[in-house]
Structures are given as C-alpha cells and as structure tokens.
Write a structure and sequence with these properties.
single chain, about 425 residues, mainly alpha, about 75% helix, globular
C-alpha cells in the first residue's frame, strides 16, 4: 500500500506539471497528499514538510545564493567571453568544437545552466559563421558541457541539494564528479557532434560577436572563474594527506563550499567591480538581481526537501528497504533508474533528482553517498524530450525541427546520462 500511494503521488505530480502548475506548488500539494494518505495526519504532515524545508534550506541556501552572486559577477564582467575567445585562439579552427567544449566546462562551473547557455550561444553562432562549420558541430559540445556541470558538479543546485539530502561530502562529490565529467563530456560533446556534421541547420540571423573592448584579461578570467572549484578540490585532497592540526583545520574551513564561494565572490567583486570602478549601487543591484533569479529555484529545492521528509517520516523509505532486502541489485543503479524514470515522466531535472533522492534515501548507507549523488544526477538528465524546457530552448535557439532536436539534444542528454552511470559504476569498483 505505501508504494501505491507514492506511485499515485508521482502521477499526481506529473498531472499537475502537465497542467502548468508551478513545480513549487506541485511538490507541496503532492507532499501533503502523500503524507496524509500514508497516515501521518494533517498536523504531522505539515510539521514534516516544514522540517524538511527548513533542513534543506539550512544546508544549501547560503551555498546557492553565494554561487548565484558569484556567477552574476562572472557573467556581467564578460569573463566568459574572454575565456571563449582565448580558448578558440589556442585550439585553432580545426579544433573549435574542442575549444567550445572546454569553454562550456569552465563557464558552466560558476554559472547556472540557463545563464551559461544565453551567454555562450551568440559566441557559438559567431564561431560557426566565421569558421564556416556546421552549427551543431560547435553547439552540441557547448550544451553537453553545460549539462554535465549542471547535473554532476556542486555548487549547482541539483547536486548540491542531493548532497545535502544524502549527507554527502560536497568536496568529494566534486572530485568524483570531475573524474566522471571529463570522459562523459568528450563522448557527448565533440565525439557525438562529429556524427551530426551532415545534420544541416539554418544559421540564425543574429551571429554578431562581441567586441574586445573592456574585456578582462584571460589570466584573470580563468583564475577567478575556476577559483572556488580549485579551492574546494585542493582542500579535499589535502585533508586526507595532512595530519591533525591547525593547517588541516584551516583547509577544512577554506574548503567548505560557503567559505570557498564567499572568498571567490569577494575576489570577483574586488577585481570585476571595484577595480573596474563600478559604483557600489551598481554592484548591489547585480548581486540583488542574482539572488532574485535563483530564489524560485531555491524554493523548489526546499519543497523537494519537504517531500523527502514526508517519505522518511511516513516510513515509506524503510518499507522500500525492507521490501528489497531479498533482492540483489546495486543501489547506484536503483538511484539512477528511479531518477531517469522521473526525468522522462516529469521533464524537470531538478524535480526528478530531488524526488528520486527522497525515494532512494534508505539505500545511501549501502553505498558511497557521493556516488549516490552522481547516480541520481546522471539519471535526472536521461532522455530530455518535449516536457523539458531545455528541449525547447535548444530547439528554438538552434532553429531545429522536432526530429532534429531529438537526434541532437535528446541523444546528447541520453549519452550524458548513460555515460555518467557507467562512470559511477566504475568508480564504485575502485574506491
């Protein structure tokens, strides 16, 4: 009976999303329906949802807001433009698609998917036009890189929120995510793009590139954009090498995601704001707008935390674990499968990942929590189609037919998802 109620809840969530109900409201409604139906009672259900929301916000809100503000400084400073043009110069025209792939990775780390896509798309158009190469040949590597960072790498909302639910170490999650990211983005990016060279698309009318006036220096752009990731990654690596003492405590402190992002934000404000003689009011306006942009996403994630808590408090998680004790299967494969099924059904990668995390939470103790985060993240990217806003964004920007979008975007997302799963399973045999 508990599984039937959860299944009904997921169907209700799908119906509400199809009816254009905002994911925030849909998750709250489904959480209440599932909690009451599972026998928690009205007050206990509301308390469960409230605690889940509070616990989720307590763990990740500061990281997400700092990440959004840092990304806004990278965006408005045009550091992303500098990174792109520099890499294209280094790689040359014959390897432009590799340059665009690397650009997407570097830009995708500090920026959220939509922001990175909007910033890079004019540069992709201009590059394809000047180099006279097929548009998708350079567009797919860019989209693949942004998608992988969105699904695998903290401080992006999805993996950060799931890491909070699983109580996974964010530094280790980042390290494992980076290991999986490289082969995944190569397969789904340049290598897959080579198969699309004959898929002709019309060049959009706006292909003008950005002027080089007032662009930040390449060294500065690379250093600031990568600083928080390097700080978290190096801190995690050194923690296992250093003996107990002040130095180790210092690196533990500096590698905390909120501290690493806070330091990075101060550096970005200093170099891209104060040294560029921006007025304090202008800097404040940029930071305020970045928080405003991410606020709804944070609320959706918080609502997902409420749904997770309802599943825990109602005993659904324990029931699923007891039911599956007689079966032998990988919890990583289960996590990926649940997230993939929800992604195909619901469309939203974030909602699919958060919902899946609540369902498979009891199995985290059977595996590495960091790998469980990545398994869910990979599953949440599976087979994007017409119920996903990313599908339509890619279709319209690249002026594609539905068939072309399925052959390019949907296949790329599927390759990312399956490659990510394979990477997680391989890592599980090593660590």
């Amino acid at each position: 009976m508990p599984l039937i109620i959860v299944g009904f809840g997921i169907l209700l969530l799908l119906a509400l999303i199809l009816l254009k109900v905002k994911p925030l409201y849909a998750l709250l409604i489904v959480s209440a329906v599932v909690g009451i139906s599972e026998g928690l009672g009205v007050m206990a259900t509301l308390q469960s949802i409230g605690w889940g929301i509070f616990d989720t916000l307590r763990n990740i809100a500061l990281v997400l807001f700092l990440g959004a503000m840092f990304g806004k400084m990278i965006e408005t400073s045009r550091a992303a433009t500098t990174i792109t043009t520099t890499l294209i110069q280094w790689f040359g025209e014959k390897n432009i698609h590799w340059a665009i792939m690397l650009t997407g990775l570097i830009v995708g780390i500090p920026l959220f998917y939509n922001a990175g896509f909007v910033i890079l798309i004019p540069l992709v158009f201009a590059t394809a036009s000047v180099a006279r190469v097929p548009l998708l040949w350079v567009g797919i590597p860019m989209a693949a890189s942004l998608s992988v960072t969105h699904g695998f790498l903290p401080p992006h909302p999805g993996p950060t929120a799931i890491a909070g639910i699983f109580h996974a170490d964010i530094g280790l999650t980042l390290w494992y995510g980076l290991i999986i990211t490289i082969p995944t983005v190569i397969l789904a990016g340049p290598l897959f793009a080579n198969t699309l060279r004959n898929l002709s698309t019309a060049m959009p009318p706006s292909t003008a590139t950005t002027t080089s006036v007032d662009l930040p220096k390449p060294s500065t752009s690379f250093a600031i954009a990568l600083f928080p990731v390097l700080l978290m990654a190096v801190s995690t690596l050194l923690q296992s090498q250093l003996s107990e003492g002040f130095i180790k405590k210092l690196f533990v402190f500096l590698g905390t995601p909120s501290i690493a992002l806070g330091i990075s934000l101060l550096l970005a404000i200093s170099i891209f704001g104060i040294k560029k003689q921006k007025q304090p009011k202008e800097i404040y306006r940029l930071l305020y707008s970045s928080v405003n942009d991410i606020f709804l996403i944070v609320l959706v994630i918080a609502a997902g935390g409420g749904f997770k808590q309802v599943l825990v408090d109602s005993g659904v998680g324990a029931y699923i674990k007891d039911l599956s004790e007689g079966f032998r299967f990988s919890p990583l494969l289960l996590a990926w499968s649940v997230a993939a099924l929800l992604r195909v059904s619901l469309g939203s990668a974030t909602v699919a990942g958060l919902t899946a995390a609540g369902i498979v939470l009891p199995f985290v103790s059977s595996s590495h929590p960091e790998l469980m985060v990545l398994a869910v993240g990979a599953g949440s990217l599976m087979f994007s189609h017409v119920n996903d806003t990313g599908f339509w964004m890619f279709k319209e920007y690249f002026n594609l037919s539905l068939k072309q979008t399925f052959l390019s975007w949907t296949m790329m997302e599927t390759i990312v998802s399956i490659s990510g799963l394979l990477g997680v399973l391989i890592l599980d045999t090593i660590i």
